[in-house]
Amino acid sequence: MAGAVAHHFNNVLGGIVTSVDYANQSNDPAITRRVFDQVSRALVRTSSLVNGLLAFSEGGPHEDDLSDLTELLNELADETEFTLAGRNIRLAVSIAKLPVTPLPRLQLLIVLRNIVQNAVEAMPDGGVLTIAACAEEEVIVISISDTGKGMDEKSTSRMFEPFWTTKGALATVHGRAAGLGLAIAHGIIQRMGGSIRVRSEIGKGTTMDIKFPRGMEGDAS
Asked: Three-state DSSP class for 60?
């Protein structure tokens, strides 16, 4: 996998260099702005992948990294609302009363930010991003939904595979990046004792459901 990761980052950096060279040779301000926007998004995604790899490599959470899930989700909602400024995407938040559930703050935030980023990228023309959480009888469920183009059954069944590609190259699936970030998210969630699954429908959007057993409840001290 290390070779695939290095190949991916090499492709990203090569694309950035090519784009910047093109912008430097162009006298069109519109082209320059478009290139800068593309470079910015590429760097944000690369930073997210690096953080995910670091979180995955750290293994299990440290005791002093535990944070209550409700506080963590409210923090995620606040920062997401800020990042959506200027986009035609509305944020809907529905966080029901949850039991005190201590979970590794940094690792879970990296996972949730990655999923939110994928949801935003699935709605280039705008839509609704929903962050929801509730406590069921045996599990606590976190759901992140978008109203993008949605995915077919083949795409949803393979999207957690590292670097799953289409047409023989690193590519996107209905606006979503090749699956290294989601593969890392899947691994981190499993290490926490949870699970993650995808529900999607073409033309209606996609929902990521993350579940943690109620047995993880306790004092977040």
From this structure: coil
Q: Residue 211 belongs to what H/E stretch?
A: strand 205-213
* CA gap 134, 128 in Å, rounded: 19
Buried b (16+ CB within 10 A) or exposed e, 144-155: bbbbbbbbeeeb
Give the strand pairing for 139-146 and 102-104. unpaired
Angle in degrees, 0-180, between the axes of helices 69-83 and 105-121, rounded to the nearest 10: 40
User: Which residues lie closer than 8 Å to 155 by C-beta, 6 or more apart?
Assistant: 173, 174, 200
CA–CA distance, 186 with 153 (Å, rounded to integer): 18
Segment 51-71, tens digit of pLDDT: 555 555 555 544 445 667 888
pTM to 2 decimal places? 0.66
